[in-house]
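PROTEIN DATA CARD
Card holder: Tagaturonate reductase
Chain length: 486
Origin: Lacihabitans lacunae
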Amino acid sequence: MLNKSKLNSSFDCSALPEKVLQFGTGVLLRGLCDYFIDKANKQGIFNGSIVVVKTTGPDVSDFTSQDNLYTISVRGIEGGLLLEEDIVVESISRVLSTHTHWDEVLKTAENPELNIIVSNTTEVGLQYHEEDVLSGCPDSFPGKLTAWLHRRFETNKKPLVVIPTELIVDNGKILKDIVFKQIESNKLSGDFKNWVTQNVQFCSSLVDRIVPGKPNAEESEEIFKKLGYKDNLLIKAEAYRLWAIEGENLEDILEFAEADAGVKLEKNIEKYRELKLRLLNAPHTLLCAMSYLSGFDYVKDTLNDVLMEKYITILMLTELGPSIPLDVDLKTTQRYGREVMDRFRNPYLDHKWISISLHYTMKMKMRAIPLLTNYYDVFGTVPQYFARCFAAYLLFMKAVKLEDGVYYGQREGEFYPITCDSAAYFMDVWATSDCSHVINTALANVELWGTDLTKLPGFASNVENHLSNMIHLGVKEVASALNVYA
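Structure generated from the sequence above:
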């Protein structure tokens, strides 16, 4: 089993002061935030450890039995080259449970060297709950944070930075608003409120790294054999990593940012959010049906097809990149696009297209349609590759049966689930199997898209042309033909 005796280095995390309080033990925090701090410590930059707070149960033995150590198996492509790296993360000093160690959690507020709080309690965690935050351990994370800040105020009053990493836009502002609502509802003092206002900086942040968690049993055994020890906390992560943190004058506190270019300290992180949404999430959405109906089950399989890779490259760099509704220079979008392509082709990740189709219509509306309308604003013409992807999406949404409340489409004689809130709507739309009816009805649905897509010059006719060709010739044939049907 992994423990300190297995390490060859002289580095000792226990000798470092505790500078970070982390709410959450999930794989994303361990594979990204704790990784960055560990890297900075080993470079002699940050020189601080993390107190991790577990909120899901009293048992912390999975950490203590391994001296709070764990291994990250980084597997992916970086700079066009395969990367395999196994890193023992040594940045955690101790793990406390709110169920059994709440007094110890509060006592960390008295440590003047601890000036960073990080959280990932899922999107559900950033919600207000009416509760007495000073009577025992509060139920909600914002309640726990308010109680901790109150202990800080009562003891040393040292300034600090709070960085939520929950996948919500403006997560820092949202958390701050909830904390102030807790202060008001609990009738805490005006002096405390003023102290929080002046001394606690809530920073919105964006995290981006695929951390699937523990590999399957077979892969884990292979890694353990290579490492020479077993690790019950082993996690797998891709090579790409990003932690964009929004705020001002953060460099002196967040010193760990120097250790890795993946940490970005910016006054505004909207650029990173837009790049991720439009050049990672949107391509996933647009290519999902095109790839799946072409016979590819996994994202990496699509990238291994020469013609499909060419299709994706053109879509991303000539249509999606220039359509980002934000002033981002071409070099930035192209560099990010190449990084995304490396992530898509990662041979170590089994990312299924059918999984990406969850909530398909909502994703199409939120991620892709703004790019379509902005493309028209910029170029005034039809984005042909986008149009083909949209045609494939409509074909994917053609349900052929309803069984036990689940709608199913069909690919090469096999059924697949359509896990989308609009599945029933599209089953009705496809009842006539007439392409023209499907196109004109679905594209004109303002409730689905927020706008009437038939009003975009040439878009409906092009989608109809591509959809008809897909039905008669095959989806992959239309995608592979590239400019033939444009």
